[in-house]
Amino acid sequence: MLSIFVKTELNKILAESLGRKNINSFPKMVKVVINYRVPEARESQEALNSAIEEIKAITGQSPRLCKAKKSVAAFKLRQNDLLALKVTLRGQRMYDFIEKLFNLVLPRLRDFKGVSNTAFDNEGNYNLVIKDQTYFTEVNLDKANKIRPIQVTMNIKSPSKEESKMLLSALGFPFAKS
């Protein structure tokens, strides 16, 4: 449903607020990248399999395994140790995930007053960390053996942070009132 809104109504809203007519100059959501750290995967294959099933249920897509590039003795980390799971969503799956995030997950957060206005990087991408994966309704609470944070990066093609914020606001992203 969000993808239909983006194709039909969003361009009209952005044209009014930006004062431009060229659709290609509007900010656009390119992809959503979800990172899911699993530091105990080095010792336990069961923890890794559990995390893979959780992220598959949340995103509807199989994750990619991320391994350590270098050994770091201070962190007891060796080269090629499993560190995290990564999923890149594009197209319809991206819009479905964003809609679920905006309408189901964020309102379930404790004492939720909106998300930060300052989490944009210099390219206009937005980063969000959800500290508990059990806020997603697809995660089976009986099988979740450990609470893990999920980092969500929304990659937005835009020339400035303000235009990225305008796009997310038009999509219904709940920013905190300042």
How does this structure look, described?
The protein has a single domain, classed as 2-Layer Sandwich (50s Ribosomal Protein L5, Chain: A), CATH 3.30.1440.10. It is an alpha+beta fold and 178 residues long. The chain has a five-stranded antiparallel β-sheet. The model has no long low-confidence stretch (mean pLDDT 86). The protein starts with a helix and ends in a 7-residue tail after the last helix. Helix 1 packs across helix 4 (161-171). The protein is 33% helix and 20% strand.
Layout of helices and strands:
Blueprint: H1 2-18, E1 28-37, H2 45-59, E2 64-67, E3 82-89, H3 91-105, E4 126-130, E5 150-157, H4 161-171
Antiparallel strand pairs: 1-3, 1-5, 2-3, 4-5
Helix pairs in contact: 1-4
